[in-house]
Design goal:
The structure is a homodimer of 202-residue chains. Chain A is built from eight helices and six strands. Chain A has 202 residues and is an alpha/beta fold. In chain A, the strands form two sheets. A four-stranded parallel β-sheet of chain A has the order 4-3-5-6.
Chain lengths: 202, 202
């Protein structure tokens, strides 16, 4: 017996593909879209159909850009210091760093992290292009802004090795206590990193 | 400065309209769709564009049906007892009841609950049509399966009044302890309802 019309079943199935969305949440989204006027679902439908057509990658930094653009604004803007490059795993990591309003260098998106278990080796990431940028743009500092995870750390170490003895500073984001965390709730590894990285009060 | 391409911003905005989806979750959904091949977003886009065109309401029960169908299968199926009608607020409540595999009557969807604070009065709900069905289908029992909320209760009472002295049993779903709940964690109102509705062990 057909409890729901096929068009609705189809939408619930498609919404259920989104990460972290189970059948109940998908039902909730679908019913919300059905109850609101057709405008909301038409808008979403349009945005989805345009997605792959209108998005491309910056040839230099591999950040997301509008289709037809060669280079990202974050690279071409003259206010941006091309001699400092923050290396991130995914394009969305750029948003997080931009929100700090504390970084005026450029970015380099790796497109993932080295993870043998998922079949991702260094040759699938944009590491070669990063090394080429060091020479082309006369980069002075590389900030390895990868996650504080096993994959993030090993990718950082691999990149360090590839850079070799080129005359460039290589740093990585500090590991330590996140702001607002009580010492007693900090995990062991975070706390040892915070101890190792302790800084003199001057 | 444009951190994200406009097509992606548009999708994030549209996804952020879904209930309970904030900007971070919308970003996660959008990036997932961008990373997976175009097939997934095309599927979702299609399903959305078909939604309003292909869904209609059953003329009798107001359940959701395929466009072009007059009556829901849940009503026309001869195995369904038309003399027993479960009254629910929303079409999705039917799914919950169907999953029990314990009800073989028909349904009647009100399309909401009486809620003066949201500007929903009884005239906006399909209550008149329910009363008409009692006479047309010679209904023997009406099961008021509305939520155990203030709106659910007052809608149930209003319907009871509209039915008047027609010769029909009117019941509502039992209120009591949900299965698996420890007595000590039950709230006061649930517990008083469970006391009031206590049943003899025979």
């Amino acid at each position: 017996m057909q409890v729901l019309p096929p068009a609705l079943e189809k939408l619930i199935d498609a919404l259920g593909n989104l990460p972290g969305v189970g059948p109940r949440t998908a039902e909730r989204y679908a019913y919300y879209l059905l109850k609101s006027d057709g405008h909301k679902s038409a808008e979403l439908s349009d945005a989805l159909s345009q997605l792959h057509k209108n998005i491309s990658y910056c040839k230099k930094t591999f950040a997301l850009v509008e289709e037809g653009m060669e280079l990202s604004d974050l690279y071409t803007d003259p206010a941006r210091n091309k001699q400092i490059v923050a290396v991130v795993a995914e394009p969305f990591d750029i948003i997080a760093l931009e929100k700090t309003h504390n970084f005026s260098g450029t970015y380099h998106v790796l497109g993932g992290l080295i993870s043998p278990i998922d079949g991702i080796g260094p040759e699938q990431l944009h590491i070669e292009e990063l090394v080429a940028r060091i020479d082309e743009d006369k980069v002075e500092e590389i900030i390895l802004a990868t996650n504080a995870s096993v994959e993030g750390e090993s990718t950082a170490l691999y990149i360090r090795k590839q850079i070799g003895d080129r005359n460039v500073k290589v740093s990585r984001l500090a590991r330590g206590l996140p702001i607002g965390l009580d010492l007693e709730y900090a995990d062991q590894i975070t706390l040892s990193r915070a101890l190792e990285g302790r800084q003199l009060l001057s």
